[in-house]
Specification:
By secondary structure, the protein is an alpha+beta fold. It has 2 domains: 78 residues, no CATH class; 89 residues, Cation efflux protein, cytoplasmic domain (Alpha-Beta Plaits). Helix content is 52%, strand content 18%. The protein has a 3-stranded mixed sheet with strand order 3-4-5. Strands 1-2 form a two-stranded antiparallel ribbon. The longest helix is centred in the N-terminal third of the chain and has 32 residues.
Length: 177
């Protein structure tokens, strides 16, 4: 939704910029030349339309309904709960707030997993209150490698000091798979 918000804000800003430049240009054009006519905007047609219709006519009511519907959809889209951008870290000072981004935690989990002997590659995902690590080993018989990896990553996550540490799921695959 953040991408949608940014795009909508940019488009709205561009529309307001264009209107903010064109309206004074039209006013200046009409004031300087002192003759009927338009520079770019069809303001005379809009004036005729709005002076010829009352608020209760069908075209005005339909336009108002469409605008209200679009506004309601945008409002409901903004009310949708977003996932937090940062995972909060606990600190000794109550006036201090610190956090780590999901992406940083993903990279750190993957790097920490790759530090363990026997792990050739790893990737991590942190989503909606849980973390998962997928690791690959080159060993034919990994033995207790999965459990050692899970213990190491769980201990590291606990030592990180997250206020609410996500539960961790570890998958280990051999190169043959």
């Amino acid at each position: 939704m953040a991408l949608f918000d940014r795009l909508a804000a940019v488009l709205l800003a561009l529309v307001l910029l264009v209107v903010g430049v064109l309206v004074p240009a039209e006013i200046g054009h009409a004031a300087v030349l002192n003759e009927p006519g338009r520079l770019i905007l069809p303001w005379q047609a809009l004036t005729r339309f709005f002076t010829g219709h009352h608020w209760s006519t069908a075209p005005i009511m339909a336009t108002s309904g469409i605008a209200a519907g679009v506004g309601l959809v945008l409002l409901l889209a903004e009310l949708k709960r977003r996932r937090p951008g940062l995972l909060t870290l606990s600190t000794q000072d109550p006036s201090l707030t610190a956090g780590i981004t999901r992406r940083s935690l993903q990279r750190a989990l993957a790097a920490r997993a790759e530090e363990l002997d026997g792990i050739s590659s790893a990737s991590a995902k942190v989503r909606r209150g849980r973390a998962s690590v997928a690791a690959t080993t080159g060993l034919r018989d990994p033995g207790d490698l999965r459990q050692r990896l899970a213990d190491q990553l769980t201990g590291w996550l606990d030592g990180l000091g997250l206020v609410k540490a996500p539960p961790l799921r570890v998958r280990l695959a051999t190169r043959e798979h």
